[in-house]
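Q: Protein A?
A:
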Amino acid sequence: MIPSEETSETLGIPFLARLTSGDRSALLSEGRECSWLENDTIIHQGDPSDYVVMLVHGYAKSTMVDERGYEAVLKLYATADIVGVDGVFLKGNRRTMSVRCLTKCRGIVLSGDHFRTLLERNPSIAFAVLGEMTYRLREGDRKRLWMASRSVRERLADTLLELARKFSVRDRDGLRIAVPLSQRDLAGMLGSSREAVAKLFKELRDKGVVATRYREIVIVRPDVLRRMRHW
């Protein structure tokens, strides 16, 4: 029987949450549990490793550093995401990015050989992995267009609204982003400089649109951010 096709409604949902309970149990029972502290590196750019991690608790980010030292933030990972899958199918290649913990994290680690064998035995998990990789490729294409066609101001508004949609909790001040991000992280997500992002945040704070503390962002006026997307 051919597994059901991934749809636009399921893509973008954390990987483990899209699996059936049986597939999820099969996957998590095959690996070894590991834990990492905040700022620990799960995967190192340039390493020849091919293991994969199922993140069962915490937040992490994938980054790529160029020869000048600029660090781009490529993706944020949350509980139930799959990490490092891009390195599983090209044996002998080195990792193109690092994955670093933004908080304390726990995950299930499977070697590349073990993971590939598991996919051969479980077509439904293999199709879910294929769907995840396809989704990430499409998101990469969308982001390249977004970077080329939007100003830094528009990109910041877009990013804050997307973070609020995915990771926010409401408190008395507004929508607090649960992922602890620095202004350098946001600059890396926007393809901008930290100085440009700091200047925009000062403007937003002065206008009462956001409130910030160390690695914490609260969106007070999402309506203003929505208008900023089209300025």
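Q: Protein B?
A:
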Amino acid sequence: MDYADARKRMVDGQLRPNRVTDPRVLDAMRDLPREEFLPPPPGRAPIRTRTCPCRAAGAWSRPW
């Protein structure tokens, strides 16, 4: 999977349509390699629209 392309599609297809407009947020969501913070497959699903477990923060949720 090309995660960089998937992150761009996530920004364009999920964030912008849900009125996330702050360019700093959009840039971070497009550029941050979220896949590096998740366990390896099959648990790795950094682009899906769902809550992801995160040891430090408890969970990552949708930004909207």
